[in-house]
Amino acid sequence: MRSVTWCKKICSAIVLVISLCTFTGCTQGDNSVVRENREETICEIDSDVKAYLKTLNVTKSTLVKYPKYENIKKECFILVDDLKVSVSEEEIEQFVKEMLESQSELVKIKGRKTVRKGDFARVNYRTYYKGKLRSEREGEIIKVGSGNYDKAFEEILTGLAVGKTYKRKMKVPDDSIYKEMAGKTVTVSFTIESINNYVIPELNDEFVQRELDCNSVEEFYKKQRKRAEKEKKQIVYKDKTDALFDKITSQCEFEMDKEEIADYAVHFVYDYEQLAYVQDISLEQYAKKNGMTLDELYQNCYEMSEKYIKRVLFVGHYVNELQISLSSDETEEKSVEEKYSVLESDVADKFIR
Asked: What is the pLDDT of residue 13?
């Protein structure tokens, strides 16, 4: 769980980066000025959306002016035909392939005792620095030669025998998450427990009946087609509504609180940290791997946060103007976030024609 100190530290870092960028003129335009000749209106925000904003800790940022629905819908809309999707046979096969891969099992390789590139090695290891234990992992699965774990360590594993314990000296990368050891030489003691491959199951009637609740492969394919079509529709709908909302918010006027934006940007930073964690790299390493500096990553998080808050603000006002309300079925046992999601979809649907 993230501590309050962590959140404040990241929030302060984001505010500092944004302040420096603003001073040097490298931030994007804030789209805060309404286009000329636009009829404008000011409206109270919907209570359900206001409740959602409170969960985002947004109380100061406001939507000052925005174009009336009757005017803006003439140029901001989504065509029904643009939401139609079709799924090719190649896409279905890819869908089936991914599903089967998700059902694959890790199986020990028999008849061989040395590690090769492409093997999935199960490794126990300990890292020592200045004679003291600094980190320890048990049963770590490493795809040798993939470069996804630690390229140098993967190279060391190649050719070694299963069941033996080895000691090797390694240099820790300069941008390691272990700051104390960054750039230093450490000793790694490790044992290769086993070498394995992921075995993808054979697609037949017996398998789909046992594992996938289908009577036959034919029925399974029909279900996968429906699933693929549903997911593709969701992606297309999201892309179209994102573009629609971006176009509308660019014509609105906001008064945004930088600290609120930075505070919510911490959620995006955390998401990036999770991606970095599963790759066992630091946030700075993750940023570098994706062609960014750490400051640029913070800048991106700030911009995503600002964009999202503006979106929620304008949705809240449009809900009121269009007199959209939730039905009893839509409110029963739903969280504040779920209620907002329904309202946002209802607003988007008003622009479909």
From this structure: 65
On the 0-12 / 13-18 / 19+ scale of CB atoms within 10 A, 91 is middle
Of 174, 182, 175, 165, which Cα lies nearest the Cα of 129?
Answer: 182
Q: How confident is the model at residue 19 (pLDDT cuts 50, 70, 90)?
A: low
Q: What is the pLDDT of residue 186?
A: 92
Q: Is 119 strand, coil or helix? A: coil
- Residue 71: exposure state from Cβ atoms within 10 A (0-12, 13-18, ≥19): middle
Q: What percent of the chain has pLDDT over 90?
A: 66
Answer for the pair 232, 85: CB distance below 8 angstroms, yes or no.
yes
**What number of H helices and E strands is found in the chain?**
12, 8
Compute the distance between CA of residue 88 and CA of residue 66 in angstroms, rounded to an integer.
41
DSSP output for 28-48: PP---SPPTT--EE--PPPHH
CB 317 within 8 A of CB 63: yes
> Hey, is 68 helix, strand or coil?
coil
Token pair, residue 161, equals: 């025998």
With tokens 């959306």, the residue in question is 49
Q: What is the pLDDT of residues 23-74, one digit of tens each?
A: 544 544 444 433 444 445 555 788 999 999 999 999 999 999 888 898 888 8
Burial grade of 318 (CB within 10 A; 0-12, 13-18, 19 or more): buried
Residue 27: count of CB within 10 angstroms of its CB? 17
The tally of CA atoms less than 13 A away on the side-chain side of residue 119 is 26
